[in-house]
TrEMBL record:
Domain of life: Eukaryota
InterPro entries: AB_hydrolase_fold
Alphabetical list of PANTHER family matching this protein: ALPHA/BETA-HYDROLASES SUPERFAMILY PROTEIN, ALPHA_BETA-HYDROLASES SUPERFAMILY PROTEIN
Region (Disordered): 1-20
Protein name (record): AB hydrolase-1 domain-containing protein
Taxonomic source organism: Aureobasidium subglaciale (strain EXF-2481) (Aureobasidium pullulans var. subglaciale)
Annotated Polar residues bias: 8-20
Signal peptide coordinates: none
Length: 342
């Protein structure tokens, strides 16, 4: 299937903000909004921007501008500033070493499943590494302190965003745009649509663990992927399993805020691949009957019913709203879930 550019429509791009380039650990990094920081803003939040597959970091500049403009229009920006950071995902842009590794099975890449997971997992690790060092480059005189980290990722970047919010305790807010928390389901769906023999020979029964999704990749998925790591096959956990999972959920997601934005007509990353895990989370977060509803987790699950594999105009509004609300400590939910179709 073709891979559309989710950011192809730039007709409503905002006025650009300032940008400065840094090379951090050999990674070309762009920081947006430094010049727009109020002199009185001694605390700074960082919005990490992770781009889609087959794209480059510069495509995220309008997203940085939209969020920074919205936040700087609020009085709270005088005490707490916002900057945004983008960098090329592994094997993309300035970091590309093998163009075929970014392609799909249908485009002739036999290791599509391994390549895509390792690339966006590596990008999540890069984000954590860059968090370690960013302040020493951007604020070397320690005149400002970075006190909060948010991440927004689209498509490939959305898959990576799920790993960022799950595995880095410093990242407390995530906006996942057309990304999926269940990589095995996503790849099985794509293998079926691609008519791989490892799928068609058994209607998918032997796909996981096959040459198209090797056991080594299954093991890595189980370690890092949200659904495989947290849930496995326990969509209906027993009471004993819940006792084991509660402290793990608290450690990994306690107090964190997540916005999922999906396209109702998305064929590349279908909402149906994310739904079982999201429903599991929403059930656990139910204010009346949820078994981990006391963990301070916010989950907003919003589907733009008319959108395909794209960052639609409606999604952009929701993302900017969610980011500013989290910076301000506001929001429609203090803890719990919100499900909406727009």
């Amino acid at each position: 299937m073709a891979t559309p550019n989710p950011l192809a429509d730039n007709s409503s791009d905002p006025t650009p903000v300032s940008s400065k380039s840094y090379t951090i650990a050999g990674v070309h990094t762009t920081v947006y909004g430094i010049d727009e920081l109020a002199s009185s803003a001694k605390e700074v939040a960082v919005l990490w921007l992770l781009h889609p597959r087959l794209q480059v970091q510069s495509i995220m500049a309008p997203i940085a501008a939209a969020s920074i403009h919205d936040w700087n229009g609020r009085s709270a920006s005088r005490s707490k500033g916002l900057i945004a950071v983008s960098f090329d995902q592994r094997n993309h842009g300035t970091r590309e070493v093998n163009a075929l590794a970014n392609e799909s099975w249908k485009k002739g890449n036999p290791t599509h499943a391994q390549d895509m997971f390792s690339i966006f997992h590596g990008t999540a690790q890069d984000t954590s590494m860059l968090i370690d060092f960013l302040s020493s480059y951007v604020f070397p005189d320690s005149s400002r302190s970075i006190t909060k980290h948010l991440v927004l990722g689209i498509s490939l970047g959305g898959h990576s965003t799920w790993q960022c919010i799950l595995h880095d305790p410093r990242i407390t807010t995530a906006v996942v745009v057309i990304g999926c928390p269940d990589y095995k389901f996503l790849m099985a769906d794509r293998a079926k649509k691609s008519k791989l023999s490892t799928w068609t020979s058994s209607e998918g029964k032997v796909f996981l663990g096959s040459t198209d999704y090797p056991q080594g990749l299954c093991d890595a998925t189980d370690r890092w992927d949200p659904k495989s790591f947290l849930v496995g096959d326990k969509l209906q956990p027993t009471d004993d399993q819940k006792k084991t999972l509660r402290p793990l959920i608290k450690e990994k997601l306690g107090g964190k805020h997540i916005l999922c934005l999906s396209g109702g007509k998305d064929k590349l990353v279908p909402y149906t691949c994310s739904a079982p895990f999201l429903d599991w989370m929403k059930s656990g977060l139910d204010k009346k009957d949820g078994w981990f509803s006391d963990q301070g987790i916010v989950l907003e699950d919003i589907v733009d019913e008319t959108a395909g594999h794209e960052y639609s105009a409606k999604m952009k509004v929701e993302a900017v709203r969610f980011i500013s609300e989290n910076l301000a400590g506001e929001g429609s939910l203090k803890a719990g879930t919100r499900t909406s179709k727009i």
